[in-house]
Design goal:
The protein is an alpha+beta fold. The protein has one domain: NADH Oxidase. It contains seven helices and five strands, in the order αβαβαααβαβαβ. It binds flavin mononucleotide (FMN).
Length: about 230
């Protein structure tokens, strides 16, 4: 559990291995109510959350695995990220280092081991074993503002979870098969899927629990204008 905001920020990480232990619905509702305190453009609150547990979650996972292992055709509704060859520096290098640290160094999966990589990737669709899977959607119009608001909502939810001793993993992987989500969750056309989020208790025994990501120092992404005492 994180007692302070600082501790929640420092201990939050993307957890990719969970214990099956359930999270009571009242607790999920409490965390969502806290996340809904997030700022949003003109207080639009453009988010809608689908909470999946038990059988509905299992059925969604099955359908997503079928889509992944079927023709695997990916249908992206909005350009969340460039194609692998189109990434530019410094993001290209950071992305490569992240992939190496997760797949090669933590999981022992080589870069050319396509099957091994797919084996890990497919775990996204069972929310890495978390007992609760969330799918976040926002209104399609105005999209840019709603996406910013969704980011604030997600971060607030992840920090509230940490304060409650829970862990999370934000998951854009779900965007690849948004038609499956639309069908299963009856998501109307005027909303788009932004992200999934695994929620539960981290499995600290799993080798994935060793994975950590570095950050650029403040000087690397900040320009101060004005004197030091301001
Ligand atoms: C919007 C968003 C989508 C993400 N999608 C995925 C995903 O689909 N699968 C995954 O394993 N991690 C996903 N991540 C986690 C990032 O890889 C992770 O946040 C980043 O490497 C930094 O590591 P940390 O969260 O442990 O600090 C996502 C993160 C964000 C913010």
């Amino acid at each position: 559990m994180a007692a302070t905001v600082e501790e929640a920020l420092l201990t939050r990480r993307s957890v990719r291995a969970f214990r099956p232990e359930p999270v009571p619905r009242a607790e999920v509702e409490r965390l969502l109510a806290l996340a809904a305190r997030s700022a949003s453009n003109s207080n639009c609150q453009p988010w809608h959350v689908h909470v999946l547990t038990g059988e509905p979650k299992r059925r969604l996972t099955e359908a997503l695995w079928q889509a992944l292992h079927g023709d695997g055709r990916v249908e992206r509704e909005f350009p969340y990220q460039p194609a692998p060859e189109d990434w530019e520096e410094p993001f290209r290098s950071r992305r490569r280092k992240f992939g190496e640290s997760l797949y090669r160094d933590t999981l022992g999966i080589a870069a050319d081991d396509t099957e091994g990589r797919l084996g890990h990737h497919r775990r996204n669709y069972d929310f890495f074993g978390a007992p609760v899977g969330l799918i976040l959607t926002v209104s399609r119009r105005p999209l840019a503002g709603a996406l910013v608001d969704a980011g604030l909502f997600l971060q607030a939810l992840m920090l509230a979870a940490r304060h409650a001793g829970l862990d999370t993993c934000p998951q854009a992987s779900f965007l690849d098969f948004h038609p499956v989500l639309r069908r299963h969750l009856a998501i109307p056309d005027d909303r788009i899927v932004v992200c999934g989020l695994a929620l539960g208790h981290a499995d600290h025994e799993h080798r994935l629990s060793r994975h950590r990501t570095p950050r650029e120092p403040v000087a690397g992404f900040t320009t101060f204008h004005g004197d030091e005492s301001a």
